[in-house]
């Protein structure tokens, strides 16, 4: 039943392109696929902005949007109209061309990453053998657009915000990639659909998701933390520190250009959450064996929205880190832990089945967390050096 419902989209696409000439049908399928993926993720973006405001309001004991439509549901529409009608101001000394291209480059790169995500059974726009490598290559390109925005604004706050963002993104890309490699080592492929297929099947009623293994749980935690830093979400939102940088590299952007940055940030959050679901949480697979009758794409987006809720929850809970804490956490905690996790993954792969590998791998992961955590706490309590005028 679920597989039949998954095929509905394929059948609808075939029916819609059947009215086109034979030579136009491949292009029609491609256009419909791109429009469908963008429509789904843009709709999720609009609903998530409403849900985040309502959720933060409840968590912080205040009202969220409650004026535009029932329960404030039309607030994203009002925000879109406001962004379209606001005046677009560009500094006189800014590089006009680069200032204009920066948000467009960011949005295009992120939208290209959505094309390789397997959102359901046999539901992927572009099935690439090296899809994960392609996704991370595109992710590295976002740093270029951030630098373009900060440098072209000819504003010291924008430039400092861009430098902060680039340093942060480069630092957290390392543990992000290393944590993803653990899933690649077990699945033996860089293809995202094949990584999902490697997690198919059940042990009783429980699925074979990687997150239920010691190395998979550690990898999912590292990947999630690094993903928050990559998307500049709290507590890693230092590039937008309004107390010292006004709005970071957004400072000189207004109107629809700022809205494009805003959309790109949320779409980036969706895409990296989707990759996390694919690598560690079984992708579109059902969480229990007796729930496989539900269409696969429903499970995929339910998992993605659950991760998005965790992002919102953390934003309402944790304060912003300092810059030194941000960098120390990446290089002195996440990086060593991700390297240790690669060793644990290799042990898991070559020790064979049995309870011995569970005990050994779980013990290494737990001891690593404790040792690195205690060492980090000790470093935070070291008394700062007192400088004299002679220095």
Features:
two-stranded antiparallel sheet, 391 residues, 14 helices, mainly alpha
What proportion of the residues is helical, as a percent range?
Answer: 55-70%
State the total count of DSSP E strands: 2
Q: List the strand order in the largest sheet.
A: 1-2
Mean pLDDT over all positions: 82
Strand content: under 5%
Q: How big is the Rg? A: 23 Å
Distance between the termini: 74 Å
What low-confidence regions span 5 or more consecutive residues with pLDDT below 50?
none
Please give the oligomerization state of what you see.
Answer: single chain
Structural category is: mainly alpha
**Largest sheet, if any?**
2 strands, antiparallel
The number of domains is 1
Order of helices and strands: HHHHHHHHEEHHHHHH
Individual helix count? 14
Shape: globular
Structural write-up:
The mean pLDDT is 82. The longest helix is centred in the N-terminal third of the chain and has 35 residues, at 25-59. A hairpin with a 2-residue loop joins β1 and β2. This protein has helices at 2-6, 8-17, 25-59, 75-85, 96-114, 131-152, 156-187, 192-198, 214-230, 242-245, 255-280, 296-317, 323-350, 355-380; strands at residues 202-203, 206-207. It has one domain. The protein has a two-stranded antiparallel sheet. It is globular. With 391 residues, it is mainly alpha-helical.
